[in-house]
Write a structure and sequence with these properties.
- Helix content is about 35%, strand content about 25%.
- By secondary structure, it is α/β, with parallel strands linked by helices.
- A hairpin with a 4-residue loop joins β20 and β21.
- α4 crosses α7.
- Bound molecules: flavin mononucleotide (FMN).
- The site of flavin mononucleotide has 16 residues, from α4.
Length: about 400
Amino acid sequence: MSLQGKKIIVGISGGIAAYKTLSLIRLLISNGAQVKVICTQNALQFVTVLTIESLSQNNVYYDTFGSRQMATEHVSHADWGDLFIVAPATANIIGKMAHGIADDALSTTLLTFRKHILIAPAMNVNMFENPVLQDNLQLLIKRGTVVLDPEYGFLACGTCGKGRMPEPETLLEAVRNALAGGDTAVMSQTNGILRGKKILVTAGATVENIDPVRYISNHSSGQMGVAIADKFAASGADVTLLLGKAQYKPQNSSVRVVETPTAELMHNAATKEWERTDVAVLAAAVADYRPAEIAASKIKKSGQTLTLQLEKTPDILAALGKSKHKGQTLIGFALETDNEVANAKKKLSEKNADVIVLNSLRDEGAGFNVQTNKVSFITSNSIEALPLKSKNEIANDIVRLVAERVK
Ligand SMILES: Cc1cc2nc3c(=O)[nH]c(=O)nc-3n(C[C@H](O)[C@H](O)[C@H](O)COP(=O)(O)O)c2cc1C
């Protein structure tokens, strides 16, 4: 989505990650947005007015009573913006936002602003995990603020843990999504229910070797499953993606990707992860059969026909269904070409799944290598047929469906 003509307010509070926000401002401008920056006084310990004004091509607002233009700049700024992103959001500004404190230019404008608000908390891991901070985040999420989860990694304070502000490119993507009604909608509708939930997603095609040169695979691009992983991550969940051969990679850097090229490797990883998983969504196109033996060297061309002996691969959905315990949700995908609903219902009960996402290759615009899909959600007592939608929208629907069940 282009940001042409969009008016973005960037709030900067006094955290070390403020230097990264300078790149965010540049990215927003180069993508066509207009940017106004509001800083706390403490933010100016980390970045300078001159740098911000040069990059944003606008005056920085940081002094509630020092207006160079009009007396109620907090109101005019709030009216101007389409979206407000606070990056980095300190523990302090989060506390003020959660409790309606308006004692500086940033907090006063935030309290006046009525549209999308995104915040990117960034701080030391102990500050982030402090129940006070977590409670404040929950209060904000309940009121519709989108909280962009900090990442794990090395922190400026010298420790390692969760608290690092996402990279500017990730923040830009979040702004885009929010303006497109994407992840903002997911975040506010899931209301933080999925925050910290362990989600396992599989995506892509598996590759079953015949010899060192050839393999058996399928046309799956991985787009649907990768979109699902991204949307769950955007809802604050802790996502592990088991990825086969795929043309897509997750955008959200908090998604933990485990490469699992074969059915066997995907099965082993999935069964290992399952014990500590709350929800599994198995969207990968896993081979049902693989060569019984993989030739050690390239099979030579000889004779008019060649017979390959195939053997069944392990059934991942069935394996997870078998060991499913109370509180876990198991979602499988079914791609059918005939008797779709009956086959999906059979799969649901035989594999002990909670939902089957059914898609048919017969529907125009559905299936492999297209941006759209047409699916139905099949449960033991309901069938919800969705219209043709983009794979991103379907991923949002799946996240919402899971949030409903988890609630
Ligand atoms: C070097 C340094 C780095 C800091 N980094 C952070 C940070 O990353 N996150 C945070 O919440 N506070 C951080 N603080 C503390 C805040 O600056 C402090 O709580 C301040 O009152 C925040 O004010 P503000 O929210 O009005 O900008 C840091 C302080 C110092 C001295």
